[in-house]
């Protein structure tokens, strides 16, 4: 073996052995510290994992006062999807309301047009049960005009 390769292997082994001592301790303020040297005069423990590789769910689950420190991506995704569903439901409701208003406007316009046609016509007729044309007399025409006005009041309320 080459002397340089041997020196490199020994250097790596020595560095790994000396750097493997990572200590963990909590000071009097409750702050957790990680260090290669143990704290003077305080008990310390060697963690199984390096400080950067600590258990992420446990770290995220307990923040200040036991409240969750942050939301997981699954929680954020679920909240996002719920907001999408809520927006789509609100949009559908808005469309239904607009369609109902348009139907009411159309029905109102048709009722007014029928009344106008009835009032402007010289002779008003209808078909009887046998399919024969029957002309309305003045009394029947007045009653029909009154029904058309009631229809307008019902269909055009609030317009």
From TrEMBL:
<feature type="compositionally biased region" description="Basic and acidic residues">
    <location>
        <begin position="74"/>
        <end position="105"/>
    </location>
</feature>
<protein>
    <recommendedName>
        <fullName>DUF4124 domain-containing protein</fullName>
    </recommendedName>
</protein>
<dbReference type="InterPro" id="IPR025392">
    <property type="entry name" value="DUF4124"/>
</dbReference>
<feature type="compositionally biased region" description="Low complexity">
    <location>
        <begin position="43"/>
        <end position="62"/>
    </location>
</feature>
<dbReference type="Pfam" id="PF13511">
    <property type="entry name" value="DUF4124"/>
</dbReference>
<feature type="domain" description="DUF4124">
    <location>
        <begin position="10"/>
        <end position="62"/>
    </location>
</feature>
<feature type="region of interest" description="Disordered">
    <location>
        <begin position="34"/>
        <end position="105"/>
    </location>
</feature>
